[in-house]
Write a structure and sequence with these properties.
Pfam families: RecX_HTH1, RecX_HTH2, RecX_HTH3. It is a single chain. The chain is mostly helical. The protein has 3 domains: 48 residues; 41 residues; 59 residues. 63% of the residues lie in helices and 0% in strands. It contains 10 helices and no strands. Helix 8 packs across helix 9 and helix 9 packs across helix 10. 26% of the residues are buried.
């Protein structure tokens, strides 16, 4: 039950009016905890959120450093989990994953460390799986159009052009779509073979 003491019926309690204003550090802690509750975030993402909310740099730095000390912010763990999740779930290649991590504020050394989880064989196997899933949807198109469409899908996911073309050609050959004609997209056409 709210007590009113001549405040004109504003609905605030005496205790609410008597609370001292929160310090910038308390505000920063509350903002960071709220943001980290939904999902892990990088230090830079949290720093950007604090700056956007007008938290002074000094207070933000103090809170972010403390959160790192206690393990609430761990950019290396974030990057590792991101690579694992996005490669497995979306089939993204190292190049696309590196770009995503950089935009989230992960440092170059940590990006490289996280990408070390993926080797070339694993990346190529994922590319083959992506092509296999999409191969059926391209049936009925001519060979060149199928190659462009499938290689384009891989390129948008960050796969190198040479690998994309090699994987697509092999998938089409395995499907029996190789009629012995050149596709015009080999090394002689200006595309590296990898």
């Amino acid at each position: 039950m709210r007590e009113h003491d001549g405040d004109g019926g504003s609905g605030t309690t005496r205790a609410e009016r008597e609370l001292p204003p929160q310090s910038p550090e308390e505000q920063a802690r509350a903002i960071c905890l709220r943001l980290l509750t939904g999902m892990p975030r990088t230090r830079r993402q949290l720093a950007d959120a604090l700056a956007k909310r007008g938290i002074p740099d000094e207070a933000a730095e103090e809170v972010l450093s403390r959160f790192e000390e206690v393990g609430l912010i761990d950019d290396a763990a974030f990057a590792g989990a991101w690579v694992e999740s996005r490669h497995r779930g979306r089939g993204l290649a190292r190049r696309a994953l590196a770009q995503e991590l950089r935009t989230k504020g992960v440092g170059a050394a940590l990006v490289q460390e996280a990408l070390g989880q993926l080797d070339s064989e694993q990346e190529e196997q994922t590319a083959r799986e992506l092509v296999e899933r999409r191969l059926r949807s391209t049936r009925g198109l001519d060979r060149d159009k199928r190659i462009r469409r499938l290689a384009g899908m891989l390129a948008r996911k960050g796969y190198p052009e040479g690998m994309a073309l090699r994987v697509v050609r092999r998938a089409l050959e395995a499907e029996g779509a190789d009629d012995g004609e050149g596709d015009g997209l080999g090394p002689g056409a200006g595309y590296p073979e990898d």
